[in-house]
Design goal:
The chain is α+β, with helices and mostly antiparallel strands. The protein is 31% helix and 27% strand. It folds into 2 domains: 2-41, no CATH class; 47-119, Double Stranded RNA Binding Domain. A hairpin with a 2-residue loop joins strand 3 and strand 4 (81-88). The radius of gyration is 18 Å and the shape is flat.
């Protein structure tokens, strides 16, 4: 098995920023097909962090951001709401724009997409 390590979007990062690593069978994670493994892995899940980072990734993806995009996104859950703030500019730093949206956590994906639409 080979694993590609990366810091950001695989398809938009230059090849020189990728590192190929071969894993031995002992280093490979077990399949998530069995209930015991699912239970162990589920304990590692931080639901709040997952929702926040998913919203951030939706904005980046909708804007087509790669490794070198002049963009930033921050999502934060407060109570039952999420606030997503983002900024974006042209590659030369011109046409800087920023927006934020807040709403129910259940609408985080829609909020993220709407925020990206406002930044375009």
């Amino acid at each position: 098995m080979e694993l590609i390590l990366q810091s950001v979007d695989y398809h938009n990062c230059p090849v020189e920023h990728r590192e190929k690593v071969s894993l031995t069978e002992e280093q490979q994670l077990p399949s998530l097909d069995d209930d015991e493994t699912k239970e162990i892995v589920s304990q590692l899940d931080d639901k709040k962090a997952r929702i926040e980072t998913t919203a951030e990734r939706i904005v980046f993806s909708a804007l087509g951001c790669g490794c070198h995009a002049p963009a930033g996104v921050f999502a934060q859950i407060n109570g039952s709401n999420i606030t997503i703030w983002a900024c974006f500019s042209d590659p030369d730093g011109g046409n800087f724009r920023e927006h934020s949206l807040s709403g129910p956590i259940a609408d985080s994906a829609k909020l993220a997409q709407s925020l990206a639409d406002k930044l375009r």
